[in-house]
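FORM 7B: Structural annotation worksheet

SECTION A. Query
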Amino acid sequence: MRCPFCRSTDNHVVDSRTSREGDVIRRRRECEGCHRRFTTHERLEDVPILVIKKDGQREPFDRHKVTRGIFNAAHRRPVSADAINDFVNELDQKIADKGLREIDSSWIGEEVMRFLHEIDQVAYVRFASVYREFKDISEFMDELSGLLRRDVSKPRKAQETAT
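SECTION B. Predicted structure
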């Protein structure tokens, strides 16, 4: 690290502290050349993950956009904000675990659909109608029919605990 006063590269760390959030380390340094002290901040380099949209455009992954979409689908439904935030955190971690710099929006959409299907079927259908871009009522009814078939095929005990 170069001293901001004399430009010397000879210095040593006097003190290190982690920020409250734990994402930054503050270091107090002392220059060996001019003996003045200065502060540096060290943080993990954030590599943005790009989402490849259906039309091929790329945009940075925005967890707030995902959260908004789920909240809109679950509006006035018995889906807790904590459940949504926990899911978005898990989704964020899954994306990070993949180690990719780019990810398809369809993968994100299917993950959201899986979550909503498990937690609230009305929110699932609302999200699906936007995500799958239903063109007419027959496509909508096909999705509902599939949802009902899956619900009927569940064992009775699983249905009771789900409600």
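SECTION C. Observations
The radius of gyration is 24 Å. The chain has two domains: 11-43, 50-132.

SECTION D. Sign-off
Analyst initials: ____
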